[in-house]
Design a protein that fits this description.
The chain has 280 residues and is α+β, with helices and mostly antiparallel strands. The protein is built from six helices and 15 strands. The chain is elongated and about 60 Å long.
Length: 280
């Protein structure tokens, strides 16, 4: 086993780098030079198992030895996986994989330590820097990506997503919030304005902007009033409608909290749309 160190400077916060490292939509993208379609299964509990897998179930079973949010993640590989089954041992058994993040004046330095089997050293020496360059690009141009399948028709989903009277009923993350007003002009150049606030009135947000692209039953692209951009794609599938929402995170807001809040709103829409379809 040979110890190899890599390092890269990324022009964004440790929170954004951490998100790009471990979010399911991003992990497979920056790992592409190493393994197409790679993904990680991790509960982020120290001394618990972690699985680094490729499509088909081959990969590694590991142990999370140490995790400090936005600062470090240390893994110890324990055995190989073949078709989702743990093997007694493998070439990576005992290897370390350590990620350390440190911020200085708005730049995050990411250091990676890998123990690499000698027969794989050439491959990782060539391809790991490519993976880190991809990670850098993703983290510096970070977007939040949310996908949800809705068991309903495309026509119904489109209408429930866009009609103001329905937006008021589903576009919240928890029951502590409500939507007192919603306007939505679904055409290119049309404006939207949605007020979301706590029921006590203590805290609230205005989501305002203009549509730049509207393709009926298929795509909405928009620009927020603060210049951020986003899109929502609708696709009929064999099991319903796949909604993919992509948008720029708000500056200076924790990207994990923002994604969680929006994911909860998307789940709320899923429940609302499926219940509405059944009732009709």
């Amino acid at each position: 086993m040979i110890e190899k160190k890599f390092s890269i400077e990324i022009q964004t916060t440790p929170e954004n780098v951490w998100y790009a490292l471990w979010d399911s939509k991003y992990y497979s993208r920056w790992n592409a030079p190493l393994c197409e379609g790679a993904y990680i299964l991790c509960d982020w509990e120290e001394d618990e198992k972690v699985f680094f897998l490729a499509p088909g179930g081959n990969g590694m079973a590991s142990i999370l030895k140490k995790a400090v949010l936005y600062k470090k993640a240390y893994f110890m590989h324990s055995c190989q996986m073949i078709k989702y089954e743990e093997q007694e041992e493998g070439v990576w058994t005992g290897a370390r994989e350590q990620f350390t993040l440190k911020e200085t004046n708005g730049t995050t330095q990411l250091k990676v330590l890998l123990d690499i089997p000698e027969e794989k050293l050439s491959f990782y020496t060539e391809n790991y820097p490519k993976a880190l360059q991809l990670l850098k690009s993703l983290a510096e141009n970070l977007k939040i990506i949310i996908e949800t399948n809705i068991n309903s028709s495309l026509m119904a989903v489109w209408r429930l997503w866009n009609a103001p009277e329905h937006i008021k009923k589903w576009n919240i993350s928890t029951d502590l919030w409500h939507v007192p007003s919603a306007e939505n002009e679904v055409f290119e150049g049309g404006k939207f304005s949605i007020r979301i606030e706590t029921k006590t009135g203590y805290l609230g947000y205005n989501f305002e902007g203009k549509y730049t692209t509207v393709k009926n039953l298929a795509l909405l692209e928009y620009t927020f009033s603060d210049g951020r951009t986003g899109s929502v794609a609708f696709k009929q599938t064999s099991i319903g409608v796949l909604i993919t929402e992509v948008f720029d995170p708000r500056p200076k807001e924790n990207v994990f909290m923002e994604k969680t809040s929006r994911q909860l709103a998307m789940f709320n829409f899923q429940k609302y749309a499926e219940k509405y379809s059944i009732s009709k």
